[in-house]
Amino acid sequence: MVLDKTVFYPESGGQPTDTGVLRTDEQEVAVLKVMKRGRDLFHHLDGNLPMYATVHGAIDWEPRYYNMRRHSAEHLLTGLFEMADAGPKVYSDLTRLDFKPSKITEEAVRRVEAEFNDIVGEDIPLSIYYASREELEDEEDEEDERKRGFLDKIPRALDRLRMVEIPGHALTFCFGTHVRSTGEIGRISEMFLKVGKKGTRTVHFTLK
Ligand SMILES: [Zn+2]
């Protein structure tokens, strides 16, 4: 089912789909997943609702909030590892970051972990704002090649990019869901380094 507007976040940008329910006065139907197809968001339902029905949507907050925390952690870790010269990040999700080529050491991982926990303690508000593609391209000199490549992949038609900044520590554009301040992310419970093939280093993390 496609709605004219929705509270559900679709599976995208490395973040999983929201689940929850859609309600009318008469019935309640579970939303199993939400997928993006072109411009439309398709709500996959466990049942049927009449066409043109007015519905009230509610997302399962607990898993969504956990995803927001882990995804925001991903931003902060990306920024901190960038500053620690970890090498180009080639992949990340809610549980890990891959760098390649990378020579990141166990010592650096422990340093980043300590910094991360300090920043969580400082409870720094995230700043979310829009910037035009031109503004970003003007800053290109300071950007590394990976970020430029990333920017090139965003459709040209999309001119306004949503910037997500953890002031002093991380800045990138992102259309995902985030917590309001670093305190909400919570401290690292476990973080470890795995040395992979061909210069890949993977950092796995879990939050408390
Ligand atoms: Zn994000």
Number of beta-strand segments = 11
Give the topology string: H per helix, E per strand.
Answer: EEEEHEEHEHHEEHEE
- β-strand amount: 25-35%
CATH class of the largest domain: Alpha Beta
Query: Compounds present?
Result: zinc ion
* Number of H- or I-type helical stretches: 5
Query: Which architecture of the largest domain per CATH?
Result: 2-Layer Sandwich
Helix content: 25-40%
**Residue windows where pLDDT falls under 50 for at least 5 positions:** none
CATH superfamily of the largest domain: Threonyl-trna Synthetase, Chain A, domain 2
Rg value: 19 Å
- What is the count of structural domains? 2
* SS content category: alpha+beta
According to CATH, what is the topology of the largest domain? Threonyl-tRNA Synthetase, Chain A, domain 2
Side-by-side strand order of the widest sheet: 3-2-1-4
Mean pLDDT: 92
Task: Describe this structure as you would to a colleague.
With 208 residues, the protein is an alpha+beta fold. It has helices spanning 61-83, 106-122, 133-138, 145-153, 182-185, and strands spanning 20-23, 28-37, 40-45, 56-59, 89-92, 96-99, 127-132, 160-166, 170-173, 188-195, 201-207. The strands form 3 sheets. A 4-stranded antiparallel beta sheet has the order 3-2-1-4, with no helix packed on it. A 4-stranded antiparallel beta sheet has the order 5-6-11-10, with helices on one face. A 3-stranded antiparallel beta sheet has the order 7-8-9. A hairpin with a 3-residue loop joins strand 5 (89-92) and strand 6 (96-99). The longest helix is centred in the middle third of the chain and has 23 residues, at 61-83.
